[in-house]
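Explain the record.
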Amino acid sequence: MHILSVNQFNKESLESLLQLAERIQDNPSRYSTVLSGKLLALLFYEPSTRTSSSFHAAMLRLGGGVVSLNVPASSVAKGETLHDTIRTLESYCDGIVIRHPQIGSAAMAAKSATRSSIINAGDGAGEHPTQALLDLYTIRKEMGRIKSGMVVCFVGDLKYGRTVHSLAKLLSFYDITIVYCAPDQLQMPDDLVREISRRNPSMQQQYASSLGNVIDRADVLYVTRIQKERFEDLQLYESLKDSFVVTQTEMKRAKRSMIVMHPLPRVSEIHPSVDDDQRAVYFKQMRNGMYVRMALLCEVFEQNLRSLSSRL
């Protein structure tokens, strides 16, 4: 079983996974040996703090082990192909978590793998399915449920933001409103907007040119950083990087029940003073990621065991 895209999930499988994550969070010790004897490889061609360390922690908390490849010090630096790297790691490990700058790289890795599960931890500006799963889990946990008519506002880099690409697809299971608040040059890709409309024609998608136009009606404010590494024109980046900054001034206009989320890392788009606001949940969101990834690893390896048993 591979986890390559949120498109793999229907509402039923999504709910099942999130319920398992909640059970794990409520009683993590109950699951402390379920992956004993299993090994997970971490293959990160791009920098990572939360995704890599939360997968590492998740595997250890489930009783498994981790092999972490230092890509710059590996044979990748000698020109080794992704195909050969995957075949190498699966010789030793049962699953591989991969982050790579190329869109579609996780799917390429899955085609190369013959015995290990591939989990997409971000493929360039494509998708980041496990981040979207933990984001949805956080919204449910903080808001109680995802109510019809809820307004979710995405802010920042929506063109290259793989986290919002994946989360928007998952949110299409619900009759809510998504507002895209971004500079014109970084708006949500048109093909993705059309895809979401096809997935749920009753879902509302709107655009906002400034944070002030939407913050007073948002139930969820999902902020992303302007990603310097995606820009070829650094002057354009400098002109856009501070387009939307959430400060205490903006927070005074927001609902008392609103939550502020961020996939992190942040640069300047959320002022540190907002951290003390009870509506800021991005550090809770970060911890939730470990429990969601624990649930995902349980399901991935359980599916593998079922498949193996059926062949014996």
Observations:
- Residues 6-124+289-311 form a domain with the Rossmann fold fold (CATH 3.40.50.1370).
- The radius of gyration is 19 Å.
- Residues 305-312 have pLDDT under 50 and may be disordered.
- The longest strand covers residues 117-123.
